[in-house]
Design a protein that fits this description.
The chain is an alpha/beta fold. Helices cover about 40% and strands about 20% of the residues. The chain has helices spanning about 35-45, 60-70, 90, 115-130, 145-150, 155-170, 185-200, 215-230, 250-265, 295-305, 325, 360-380; strands spanning about 10, 15, 25, 50-55, 80, 100, 130-140, 175-180, 205-210, 235-240, 280, 315-320, 335, 340-345, 350-355. The chain has an 8-stranded parallel β-sheet. A 5-stranded mixed β-sheet has the order 11-12-13-14-15. A two-stranded antiparallel sheet has the order 1-2.
Length: about 375
């Protein structure tokens, strides 16, 4: 079903060059909780996951990963998600089958080093350990230089960032890599991946819609992006990113496999699906979530705004402070969750932090004020 991209090997999983499309997901347990992380990784593999990703943000996480690998060896292909701590690639590479780095996160630490030097370090670790690499470009954390050079064109910024990093990795003579370009807007996911596939038809693509949200809407939002791309032969592996409790994370695998099977059989379930004016964006629960009430909060927000479907409003609910601040900037109203409080934003403006049992009242008031402003603006136009 995919284009004739080159073959990439991730442990026992192979993708690209017309191979079957493996489905991936990410553990939502805290990495240092080894027992729960091993259990969740095994549950995802049992559901059919070709690769399971784990976040590593510290030396303690890296040490836990080594034990997780020991307990899952032969049963799970492991990927590691590097955040700003790109030097941790040296510690984790021996224990995983793939390293994912985000170009937009290479600017925070050791700023005296160039991005090329940092990528070279990561690639060296991957090469020595026999790992694959994913260049994971994300709309909410795009390379600031690319954002500045593509004003008002977020798709152009993400695609150019991906192409730039492909060139860096190619110059290092490393080919066992894939690229993902993700956005919370299915239309932008389609446009970005079409543009990238046209420019680099040789590079395998990992498809994803960030912050797709709660099922079943999150599944349909993902289908809106995946169905046309897969039908065009674009996409060699994928993840369905849903906001669900930890014990339901294998649902991402089940839904991903169903999408692949449906497209292969010519069933396009999202063909007539139309996103309403009201758009709720919520991130998939992951190990960086500091309060598991985040999922419950996202469900409560969904229920609160159900009567407002006709209004053109975007609300973002993010589970952590790593991606939350940046990935709520484009929403009318944004919530990003800490351990005890939820930070409320109006666009890029931070309004304040509220307790979990207080924040819905504040959100409801902000929504009412937003609707009133929109009505006033419409009347005056």
């Amino acid at each position: 079903m995919g284009l004739r991209t080159r073959r990439v090997k991730i442990g026992t999983t192979e993708l690209g060059a017309g191979a079957p499309i493996p489905v991936q997901s990410m553990c939502a347990t805290h990495t240092q909780n080894i027992g729960e992380t091993v259990a969740q990784a095994r549950a995802m593999a049992a559901a059919g996951a070709g690769v399971v990703r784990i976040a590593v943000d510290s030396d303690k996480d890296a040490a836990a990963l080594a034990e997780i690998r020991r307990q899952t060896r032969g049963a799970v292909n492991l990927s590691v998600d590097l955040q700003e701590n790109w030097r941790l690639s040296a510690s984790v590479a021996p224990h995983v089958d793939k390293i994912r780095y985000n170009p937009g996160h290479l600017h925070h630490h050791e700023r005296e080093m160039t991005v090329v030097q940092k990528v070279a370090f990561i690639i060296e670790q991957a090469r020595n350990a026999g790992c694959a690499v994913r260049i994971g470009v994300n709309c909410g954390s795009t390379d600031p230089a690319q954002t500045a050079s593509h004003p008002g064109d977020s798709v152009g910024a993400t695609v150019e960032s991906a192409l730039q990093h492909c060139a860096i990795v190619d110059a290092l003579k490393f080919t066992n890599y894939v690229v993902s370009i993700k956005d919370s807007d299915p239309k932008k996911v389609i446009e970005a991946n079409r543009r990238f596939a046209k420019a680099r038809p040789d590079v395998p693509i990992h498809l994803g819609v960030t912050e797709a949200g709660l099922p079943p809407g999150g599944v349909m939002k993902t289908r809106l992006a995946f169905e046309p791309l897969l039908a065009e032969g674009i996409g060699d592996t994928l993840r369905v990113s849903l906001t669900v409790p930890n014990d339901q994370k294998p649902l991402e695998i089940t839904e991903g496999r169903r999408i692949v099977d449906d497209v292969r059989a010519g069933r396009f379930l999202a063909r007539d699906y139309v996103l309403s004016g009201l758009n709720i964006i919520s991130c998939p629960s992951c190990s960086r979530v500091e309060n598991q009430d985040f999922v419950k909060l996202a469900e409560k927000v969904r229920d609160l705004v159900q009567p407002l479907k006709e209004h053109e409003i975007t609300i973002a609910v993010m589970g952590c402070r790593v991606n939350g601040p940046g990935e709520t900037d484009d929403a009318d109203l944004g919530l990003w969750c800490g351990p005890t409080h939820v930070n409320v934003k109006r666009g890029t403006e931070k309004i304040g932090a509220f307790k979990y049992d207080e924040v819905l009242d504040k959100l409801e008031a902000e929504i009412a004020a937003l609707i009133a402003r929109k009505k006033t603006a419409a009347a005056g136009s």
